[in-house]
């Protein structure tokens, strides 16, 4: 009886140890993975700034499951996201020059990560900026965005002019 109890306790202890090591801390992101995710985002910035929306969209997973969330609501599907970018940014004047800052990349698992950062558009008449959270998945073609939640910062109201 003592042998059975010892085996059960040892098995329970091993299960707790395995569960604790699996769930107690976030997965570490390999240096190469972080580099590859940053490259996806850098490539998007370069494509945007040369006016190539199709190349910009290569950073997203070409899937009906891809999602974009913003002030206009929730869009589902790569094609819907592409159409949004084409509609809202039809020319260089509307697109402006894109940059990202304060970029952080965190692992969720070996095949999933999220990126947190800020976007900035430098345009002729305004300079909108905001925050984003991207969920990326490692695919056979590399890391791709599967969910983009981007929120523009509120612009300050014009200050009353002194008279």
Explain what you see.
With 163 residues, the protein is an alpha+beta fold. The chain has a single domain (27-152), classed as Nuclear Transport Factor 2, Chain: A, CATH 3.10.450. It has helices at residues 2-23, 31-49, 53-56, 78-88, 92-95; strands spanning 67-70, 73-76, 97-109, 112-122, 129-139, 142-152. A six-stranded mixed β-sheet has the order 2-1-6-5-4-3, with helices on one face. β1 and β2 form a beta hairpin. The chain starts with a helix and ends in an 11-residue tail after the last strand. Mean pLDDT is 85; it is low at 4-25.
Q: Can you describe this structure in just a few lines?
A:
The protein has 163 residues and is an alpha+beta fold. Helix content is 37%, strand content 33%.
**CATH topology category name:** Nuclear Transport Factor 2, Chain: A
Q: What radius of gyration results from the CA coordinates? A: 22 Å
- The dominant shape is globular
Distance separating the two termini: 94 Å
Which SSEs are present, and which pair or pack?
Elements lengths: L1 H22 L7 H19 L3 H4 L10 E4 L2 E4 L1 H11 L3 H4 L1 E13 L2 E11 L6 E11 L2 E11 L11
Parallel strand pairs: 1-6
Antiparallel strand pairs: 1-2, 3-4, 4-5, 5-6
Features:
single chain; 163 residues; alpha+beta; Nuclear Transport Factor 2, Chain: A; six-stranded mixed beta sheet; 33% strand
